[in-house]
Amino acid sequence: MWGTRREIVLTENVLPYLKRKCKILDVGCGNGFLAYLLTKRKVNVVGVDISPRRIKYAHEKCPEADFIIADGRYLPFYNEEFESVTCCEVLEHVPNYPMILNEIFRVLMPKGTIVVTVPYKMQEHINFFDEQKICKAVKSKGFKIEKIYGIGFELEGIGRFLPSKLRILLHKFFYYFFKRANFIVVVGHKSAKERL
Prior knowledge:
globular; Rossmann fold; seven-stranded mixed β-sheet
């Protein structure tokens, strides 16, 4: 699957928070769709995923990015190596997801940006999240949360004909007033000071 409606909606909510011309790590990159969009913005992107099959597919679809088979709980990178880290639709699948957040904190530069997405109140996974649970998990690892909001797919019919900025505003509207969402987006920054 490449560039599905779900992937497009998720990525259009992630991309605005990532700088151009910087070094970004995509933890749990899957088939590399987000990495592909980032390379189009002249971003130096590295994707990691535990699945060799997905990494192979990502290499084929996006040879401009670097892809590595790795477990997000044990990232093979130096401390403070990346300016931004994304982790989209991963934490709900991992038994010990705080380990991934620890590793993201370690490899992210001070004041670097983290963008996390998780399903909203979907109990079909190993972990399920609401706003409070994901905020608490991210804050407990030393990140300052800048934004949190829900996105959904209620607009798939007519919404696909709207500009992405308008779709994002409508997703935020539905979430704020009706708590209708399929996914939660969390944007934060690493504190300039180390965790205690």
